[in-house]
Write a structure and sequence with these properties.
By secondary structure, the chain is mostly helical. It has a single domain, classed as Methane Monooxygenase Hydroxylase, Chain G, domain 1. Helix 1 runs antiparallel to helix 2 and helix 2 runs antiparallel to helix 3. The chain is elongated, with a radius of gyration of 17 Å.
């Protein structure tokens, strides 16, 4: 445990941010799974709707600093590619 007051404060802040990041990442993972399930079922309509929700969540996470900008772009690109592969 830290002895310095500022270090103790940083520990509290880090715990708060870690919790927030976990919640956001969990939500993104859930939305990504919805897209992947729809793609696996070849359901174009559901996949497209799910993709929109997932993209919004991923972009918000990137703007909050949960994901790096390029990591978010890569996730969105891969999901879009999967949805577009449905004939």
């Amino acid at each position: 445990m830290a002895n310095i007051k500022s270090a103790k404060k940083r520990i509290k802040v880090i715990e708060t941010k870690t919790l927030r990041n976990k919640v956001i990442k969990s939500k993104v993972k859930t939305l990504v799974k919805k897209v992947e399930v729809a793609v696996a079922a070849s359901d174009k309509d559901l996949a497209t709707k799910s993709l929109k929700d997932a993209v919004v969540a991923i972009d918000k996470a990137a703007s909050k600093g949960v994901y790096h900008k390029k990591n978010a772009a890569r996730k969105v690109g891969r999901l879009a590619k999967a949805v577009n592969s449905i004939a």
